[in-house]
Design brief:
alpha/beta, 6-stranded mixed β-sheet, 14% strand
């Protein structure tokens, strides 16, 4: 299977899925489609017992590709938001063991993907960050992301940090259970493989059934077809003042590259 934004390596009994789109792996519509198709295929392949999802040196993903998304028309943006939300739900319901090996930056959209995993191992370097900082970047957060954050952090901390739009250093993320381990960069994949092999010792049906039961309340709170969340997100996205702020953010990105 060849994907435009991913590199997929099939090992003896698991798959390594690597986000691979430029330096920072920004999430665009093609990456969303590639992830959805890949995880659908891996769920159906009996010989693939689990997945490690990772990025490239220093980046899991820098988040949504706001530069590309800014130029989407209304139909394109609606389609992207529907597919992005559906991908998050799909990955959260993936029945096989899934480890996220985070080599670096993982804010916003990167976190949206990472929090669907069963276990997250992150590069310990404090210059890196992870978290749902949608409030800080003027993107409307959805019920599905609130449910996911609450599952891992608990209601009180999820409420506090979503409203603050807080990004965590790896040590901070470890303290609030947003990641499960931190370690030096050269150990991230090694530890991910060890953890996956630990999970693979369990009977696959027992693991899948148990995972589903553990996440039952999380899944029960998910909005599956867009609905009011989608309309709120799109309404905010097209507000002139929000468009102006996003344009200013994009300009700052371009100035940094000069």
């Amino acid at each position: 299977m060849i994907m435009e934004t991913l590199k997929i390596t099939r090992k003896e009994n698991y798959a390594l899925v690597q986000l691979s789109r430029g330096k920072a792996n920004p999430v665009n519509h093609q990456m969303v489609k590639d992830l959805s198709a890949t995880f659908k295929s891996l769920q159906e392949e009996a010989e693939m017992k689990g997945v490690i999802l990772t990025g490239t040196p220093n980046f899991f993903s820098a988040g949504l590709d706001v530069v590309e998304l800014y130029d989407y028309d209304e139909d394109q943006m609606r389609s992207f938001m529907i597919d992005f939300g559906a991908m998050h739900v799909q990955l959260s319901r993936f029945p096989k063991p899934m480890i996220c090996a985070i080599p670096g930056y993982c804010p916003a959209g990167g976190t949206v993907i990472a929090i669907t995993a069963d276990y997250r191992i992150m590069n310990e370097d404090p210059k890196f960050s992870i978290g749902l900082n949608e409030m800080k970047v003027n993107v409307q957060i959805t019920t599905n992301l609130i449910e996911a954050y609450t599952y891992w952090l608990g209601t009180s901390l999820a409420n506090r940090y979503i409203l603050e739009g807080k990004l965590f250093t790896p040590p901070e993320a470890l303290k609030v259970n947003l990641v499960d381990e931190i370690c030096p960069a050269d150990e991230v994949m090694v530890r991910a493989e060890l953890k996956l092999q630990e999970f693979l010792q369990a009977d696959s049906d027992i693991f899948g059934y148990t995972k589903s039961k553990l996440r039952a309340k999380w899944h029960a709170g998910q909005e599956l077809q867009g609905g009011s969340d989608l309309e709120q997100t799109l309404k905010v996205w097209w507000k002139p003042e929000i468009r102006a702020k996003i344009a200013s953010l994009i300009a700052s990105f371009k100035n940094k590259k000069k």
